[in-house]
């Protein structure tokens, strides 16, 4: 069984939690959380692969890790940002 990836990064004072995991039917889902709420999600399907057979498992794991890294790069590049609204205002920065 293939497990997923979990990463936390701080960008511009905001803590992002990135979670990527396999889904049924050779799918990969990545969700980005800020303060417990989803601010971005990405689901890709790879119908030619299965996460079970040993031959496909390495390739599926590579795709899983690649998607996880790409989403992290998008956050760092400012392409994925925390949600804000007039009612809630901006997300407060992380303090140490």
How would a crystallographer describe the biggest sheet? 4 strands, antiparallel
Round the mean pLDDT to the nearest integer and report it. Answer: 84
Q: Give the spatial strand order of the biggest sheet.
A: 1-2-3-4
Number of strands: 4
Q: Which structural class best describes the helix and strand composition? A: alpha+beta
Helicity, as a percent range? 10-25%
What would you call the shape? elongated
From the N-terminal CA to the C-terminal CA, the straight-line distance is 37 Å
Order of helices and strands: EEEEH
**How many structural units, i.e. domains?**
1
- Strand % is 35-45%
Rounded to an integer, what's the Rg over CA atoms?
Answer: 15 Å
Low-confidence region ranges: none
Please give the count of helices: 1
Task: Give an account of the 3D structure.
By secondary structure, the protein is of the alpha+beta class. The chain has one domain (5-76). The chain is 24% helix and 35% strand. The chain has 1 helix and 4 strands; from the N terminus they run E-E-E-E-H. The protein has one helix at 54-76; strands spanning 5-11, 14-23, 27-34, 37-45. It has a 4-stranded antiparallel sheet, covered by helices on one side. The N and C termini lie far apart (37 Å). The model has no long low-confidence stretch (mean pLDDT 84).
């Amino acid at each position: 069984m293939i497990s997923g990836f979990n990463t936390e990064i701080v960008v511009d004072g905001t803590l992002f939690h990135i979670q990527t995991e396999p889904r049924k039917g050779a799918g990969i889902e990545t969700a980005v959380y800020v303060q417990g709420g989803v601010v971005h999600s990405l689901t890709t399907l790879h119908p030619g692969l299965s996460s079970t057979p040993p031959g496909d498992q390495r390739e599926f794991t590579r795709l899983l890790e690649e998607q996880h890294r790409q989403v992290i790069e998008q956050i760092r590049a400012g392409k994925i940002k925390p949600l804000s609204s007039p009612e809630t205002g901006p997300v407060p920065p992380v303090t140490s």
